[in-house]
Specification:
The complex is a heterodimer of chains A (about 270) and B (about 400). Chain A is mostly helical. Chain A is about 45% helix and about 5% strand. Classes of the chains: A mainly alpha (about 270), B mainly alpha (about 400).
């Protein structure tokens, strides 16, 4: 009675997976009516691949030198950088370049001190109102989770960063009532095609320590990968452990199936 | 076979006073089970396993989670980043919920196909439905806890349904919220109830099993077994080992999601913190609620929608009387069998409609599928029961079960 029943069971499992995927795809399809994102090849995103520490370091440099002027990253502690290849001394040194507010001290006063590895990355603005005031009313989002908080987060952020143009190109389909508002910029990929953030990256905006040429595409890719890492710092570990778990479960399933067949062979 | 025969003095001392092992022997070891159960009968025990997975991971998550509007979202990220194995616990719990519903839905449709709800198993069926209802409550409450955008707006949409109740609706909603909008007090009470309900489910599961063990499992033939010596086998080792095999396969599928597609079944916008000032463009529930969401939105009237959604589940309580056919298994019911598959397809269509905005073709499809859903349960099933000519049903499952002692296992 063995094989056909197993086939049935597997068919059911596959059917279930297809149904789930169908439901999820139906959900994705809603959002896909916007402009198609650039499909970038993400070397770190495969089942067997992992982050490139050199790239994460470059991405971190782009973040601190460019994005961090306006965007906070509240879940990034300096100590986290040791997970991507920074040494303890490097992290201490780096943290000491930042000032955080601590306190109250014994006299009840708040005071400023150099940041330590255990501190979180300070926000560029003390609160949302200050951020809006400094940015023409727009609020620069915290970037800690941005890759996970957008459909196709990697392609979306990469497309957005490389999607700035002086004005809408010929033949680009715009909504009928489209009018670029004061202090807004055209971006092909941002919902509504106008964004309060000016183009953040230009060629050679940063000087990479490892000599990589800092083109707009390169910097956009690097910072997007860095944002993917900070969105889920444990994802490399997850993929690595997952492989072992799946192999174990596959072997154990086969073993249990053999035991089942053996036990049932006593029956007609 | 069994624990209770142990000669150990301490065990005998306890057994004499509280025969717990004797009871376990009767329920788990010797428990006579039809010998012809197919793999669709695995899903009941799989559901039990998922309940345990959810409770264990949930209890540990609760040690690190903070049920407060200002801290909930951050505490979930704390679990993902700083708690040892926190990411694994959280992804197991969030995807485990989906797995739980998947196996329970298969379990229910197995019952529908083989007529497991018919006499004398009506009360067993009722308690199963109560479990489903409690599961849905628990899942909804739990989805609110991460306090992301979809958590917040799902809570707002679903609790607002109660405002459709005449006279007391508005006051009721304020009472549910603990204020004048979904806010921190709502989150705190949802957390409390989310912790409570799984233990209610455990209690109802015991009643469900109690009722099951009175007349025993139904079987693919759907017949009353008259010769248990021939047609039944002890639960252990035959079904324990079969259930273990099914469990490993289920864990494999769960692991694929947990380790490689952990957010596929979630909404990306839930990684943005709850913001009462920004409404997401599309508010959708988790996949396992989509068919019911489609029914809710298919009815143009708010109260009507809520009633239709409630009815879509509660009708199943009277299904044993709507289906008047005396034959249980669809194997011997040529007409019912075809309508079973159509009904399953209808539920999947409802699910896809539920994931899409209620406009144009989607809305029309939702209305037709909703109408058919109720037509199937209220009209088609009773009519089939009345007019269908079932095929002849066998007397027993088959030849004598156990071979002659000493005969080689593979021969004969």
């Amino acid at each position: 009675m063995g094989v056909p029943r197993v086939a049935l069971f597997l068919a059911a499992a596959i059917g279930l997976a297809v149904a789930l995927a169908g439901a999820a795809l139906a959900g994705v399809a809603r959002a896909a009516e916007e402009v198609e994102l650039k499909e970038h090849d993400w070397a770190h995103a495969g089942v067997f691949s992992s982050f490139d520490p050199a790239q994460l370091r470059r991405g971190f440099q782009v973040y601190t030198e460019v994005c961090a002027v306006c965007h906070s990253m509240q879940y990034l502690a300096f100590r986290n950088l040791m997970e991507i290849g920074f040494s303890e001394d490097e992290v201490k040194e780096l943290a000491a370049d930042y000032v955080v507010i601590d306190g109250p001290d014994n006299e009840g006063e708040m005071f400023e001190r150099d940041a330590r590895p255990s501190d979180y990355f300070p926000s560029p603005f003390p609160n949302e109102n200050a951020a809006r005031y400094a940015n023409n009313g727009a609020f620069p989002l915290d970037l800690s989770l941005i890759i996970k908080a957008r459909e196709d987060g990697l392609d979306y952020v990469y497309s957005l960063l490389t999607g700035f143009e002086e004005e809408p190109p010929e033949g680009f389909e715009l909504p009928e009532d489209f009018e670029l508002a004061d202090g807004m910029y055209f971006n092909r990929y941002f919902p509504g095609h106008q964004i309060a953030m000016p183009q953040p990256l230009y060629d050679d905006f940063v000087e990479y320590e490892d000599g990589t040429v800092a083109s707009i595409d390169q910097m956009s890719e690097d910072v997007t990968v860095f944002l993917d890492w900070i969105a889920e710092p444990k994802s490399d570990e997850r993929k690595k452990i997952g492989l072992r778990v799946l192999i174990f479960l596959a072997v154990f399933s086969a073993l249990m199936y053999a035991v089942k067949v053996h036990v049932w062979s006593k029956l007609h | 076979m069994g624990f209770a025969n142990s000669q150990n003095k301490i065990i005998r001392w306890v057994e004499y006073r509280l025969p717990v092992l004797k009871w376990l022997d009767a329920q788990l070891i010797d428990y006579p089970t039809p010998k012809n159960l197919n793999y669709w009968w695995n899903f009941g025990s799989l559901a039990g396993v998922m309940l345990v997975v959810q409770i264990v991971t949930g209890i540990v998550l609760a040690m690190h989670y903070m049920p407060h509007g200002d801290y909930a979202f951050d505490s979930v990220e704390h679990i993902m980043r700083d708690v040892s194995w926190g990411w694994l616990l959280r992804y197991l719990h969030s995807n485990g919920g989906s797995m739980f519903f998947a196996v329970v839905y298969i379990h229910i449709f197995r019952g529908l196909y083989y007529g497991s709800y018919k006499a004398p198993r009506e009360i067993l069926w009722w308690f199963g439905l109560i479990i489903l209802f409690l599961m849905m409550m628990t899942a909804f409450l739990g989805y609110v806890l991460p306090w992301g955008q979809m958590s917040f707006w799902a809570a707002t949409v679903i609790t607002s349904m109660f405002s459709a109740i005449p006279w007391v609706g508005d006051e009721l909603v304020v009472w549910l919220w603990g204020g004048y909008s979904v806010d921190s007090p709502t989150l705190t009470r949802f957390y409390s109830l989310h912790y409570l309900f799984p233990f209610l489910i455990v209690g109802v599961v015991f009643v469900h099993l109690w009722a099951l063990h009175v007349h025993g499992s139904n079987s693919p033939l759907g017949i009353d077994i008259k010769r248990p010596d021939q047609d039944k086998i002890p639960f252990h080792p035959y079904y324990t080992v079969k259930d273990l095999f099914g469990m490993m396969v289920m864990f494999f599928i769960l692991a694929v999601f947990v380790f490689y597609l952990p957010n596929m079944l979630g909404e990306v916008i839930n990684y943005e913190k709850a913001n009462p000032l920004v409404t997401p463009p599309h508010i959708v529930p988790e996949w396992y609620f989509l068919p019911f969401y489609a029914i809710l939105r298919a009815v143009p009237d708010k109260l009507g929608g809520v009633i239709a959604m409630g009815a879509s589940i509660s009708i199943f309580f009277v299904l044993p009387w709507l289906d008047v056919s005396k034959v249980r298994s669809a194997k011997f019911r040529p007409i019912y069998r075809q309508f079973f598959w159509i009904f399953l397809g209808d539920c999947i269509v409802l699910g896809i409609v539920g994931a899409n905005p209620p406009e144009g073709t989607w809305l029309l499809m939702g209305r037709l599928a909703t109408a058919y859903y109720f037509l199937h349960l209220l009209v088609i099933i009773p009519l089939i029961g009345k007019f269908e000519k079932p095929r002849p049903v066998p007397e027993g499952i088959g030849e004598p079960v156990l071979k002659d002692a000493g005969a080689p296992a593979k021969e004969g």
